[in-house]
């Protein structure tokens, strides 16, 4: 062998020998692979598989805090909330993590007595819309505000003769000016559930009706003292039957009309026996069969029934000059009185100050709660609309829950998340400007732009699973089951989905999504169990939840039952674990019962109430009429974002941390998650 070849061999041996001597840490490699599969399973909503993968990774690397945190995430989403809290607390003992600490605090607030003990009692200004600001006039002298289901609101601009529509951030979406016949000093407005908008025109002495885009107008009423005539119509309210109530300050009365402008009756004069008569009727609100009318001159609230009969006088000696009234929680009225906004407890007849705006404004005419729990206040003299939030929630911030990250089309990434207040109430109406997304790998990456593909509150989509009780008592219900399934299935179309799950000892999906109606009916009727093989509600609910958990939009389980529970109903998962599993994944549990509510097992009632749903007696006069509308009208604070990742996924081997921040006025919330790009070979 030549000297040159010998020299090359010596060099190769010197270079390669240290490499082989170092070896490969197989435990580290296997731990990383188990972690990768755990993250992938989590983002596919396979939480039990994720738990097993994270536990295997931790068996190899028990001190890895990232693995521990993800195990807590998977335990939480699988319903084992106490175990998740313990894991997160252990992580926080070893490192400071503000996001994880905030998540744990919010969860402990929701798990304990926070919901029951929390009562908003003080609001502060978090934002102001200045209608006559330095950047140009937006509107003048707002006299009223009205909350919209999408988180936005309407405002009546008395001074600039228009109705304005704002989004959740206070950006103007539209202006209603009245068409060819311009609005004459609009004072108040309201929107019906069907989308009609009614406007009181103070100087026009009439009521205008338009659609929810202000494109066509009808008017009714005229100046005068006769039936259906007005002398300065101001505030309006709508009862459950759809009738309008309008306070008429010049005639010192309230006029009731239908939505076509037909006069029904008027009330409030002194002809009603012991009632002294309205002196200066201003605000008006309806709760149930009671009509509440503020009398600014008398400083009281007068109460009538829907036929105009005087019932009682409230708040004597407690108010100065009450103006606009609006309904808050059941049994609560929110009223504007000069510079203050009050909460009035009807049952206790107690007034408490929600906000004192004496330094910031001159005259508040109307205050309402919006769909996200904030208070909107129309400041007439200062031409401002103020946004107020509960002081405790301002400092607690918003809660963000990242449900899953989808990467099949990487570098396009889709993120499903939910935004809530600290108590779990959804925040609706957000748009792209409310979200900031960041990827954190070797350095911070903020994608150039992101799109908001889905807003749960606007979609109307419902992903439902019907779980059928297999108690022997259901054997005689074949015809009733057929009718119920037919009624339910008729409501699912388009982006919605519906399937049937058997609630037997070994639950199964007996009719998957997309099944024809006859298949759904046969699956629901099924074969009843005998007394020795009573159904497993816990397994059936978890199976049903797994079928709908990845759906975008409303998610609901409907339990069709005679109200009974077998001895094995919660043999595998406790009632508390099952409840928390549904809560953690935004799934509501409805009881559809063939027996009255007082004969339903209390465990079923608990599960329904704690998930934000309820029980329905199928033989009530209206049956399921209107039920579906109630289900899909529940506020939904889920969103889907899409963006183009700037990170190199390293052929699917790189863990990419992700963070989402939500900002609304001066409130914000952040959450973190992560993902792996698809494996590339």
CATH superfamily of the largest domain: TolB, C-terminal domain
Radius of gyration: 30 Å
* Domain unit count: 4
Structural class: alpha+beta
The CATH architecture of the largest domain can be given as: 6 Propeller
Instruction: Name the strands of the widest sheet in spatial order.
Output: 36-35-34-37-38-39
Quick structural overview:
With 681 residues, the chain is α+β, with helices and mostly antiparallel strands. Helix content is 24%, strand content 35%.
Task: Give keywords.
single chain; 681 residues; alpha+beta; Serine Threonine Protein Phosphatase 5, Tetratricopeptide repeat; Neuraminidase; 4 domains; 6-stranded mixed beta sheet; 4-stranded antiparallel beta sheet; 15 helices
List the helices and strands and how they pair.
Elements: H1 3-22, H2 26-43, H3 47-60, H4 65-77, H5 81-94, H6 98-111, H7 114-117, E1 123-130, E2 132-133, E3 136-137, E4 142-147, E5 153-157, E6 162-166, E7 172-176, E8 186-191, E9 197-201, E10 206-210, E11 217-220, E12 222-223, E13 229-230, E14 233-238, E15 244-248, E16 253-257, E17 263-267, E18 281-287, E19 290-295, E20 300-305, E21 310-314, E22 322-327, E23 332-337, E24 340-345, E25 350-356, E26 364-369, E27 375-379, E28 384-390, H8 391-396, E29 399-406, E30 412-420, E31 435-440, E32 444-445, E33 450-455, H9 456-459, E34 462-469, H10 478-489, E35 497-503, E36 508-511, H11 517-525, H12 537-548, E37 554-561, H13 575-584, E38 588-593, H14 602-610, E39 615-617, H15 627-633, E40 638-644, E41 655-664, E42 667-676
Parallel strand pairs: 12-13, 34-35, 34-37, 37-38, 38-39
Antiparallel strand pairs: 1-28, 2-3, 4-5, 5-6, 6-7, 8-9, 9-10, 10-11, 14-15, 15-16, 16-17, 18-19, 19-20, 20-21, 22-23, 23-24, 24-25, 26-27, 27-28, 29-30, 30-40, 31-32, 31-41, 33-40, 35-36, 41-42
Helix pairs in contact: 2-3, 3-4, 4-5, 5-6, 10-11, 12-13
